[in-house]
Amino acid sequence: HLQSLIIEGNNVTNPQLTKLLRFSPHLRVLRLASVGMKEVPTSTGKLIHLRHLDLSGNHFCKLPESVKQLVHLQSLDLSHCDSLKQLPREIGELSNLFSLN
């Protein structure tokens, strides 16, 4: 099972991301840094084994509510996401989250 997926600096479309995530349900590390993402796929919430999520340097304005399903998430990097104006309340429900950048 694929446990880490790192894509950095290459533009990826939302359909491509959705397909990638659907076939990678056991991911523990997901780094999608500066990939030109304008929307975080809702299916990200299905990655229930995810520990580290790096979405830095992208252009989305909100996170999907499905992030509350990432109960094992320990670190979330949203640095340089200049279009992101606020975090969903559901972030507070992630009891294992110790690093938010």
From TrEMBL:
Keywords: Repeat. Coiled coil: none annotated. It comes from the Eukaryota. SUPFAM superfamilies: L domain-like. Residues 1-100 form the Disease resistance R13L4/SHOC-2-like LRR domain. The keyword Iron does not apply. This is Disease resistance R13L4/SHOC-2-like LRR domain-containing protein. It comes from Opuntia streptacantha.
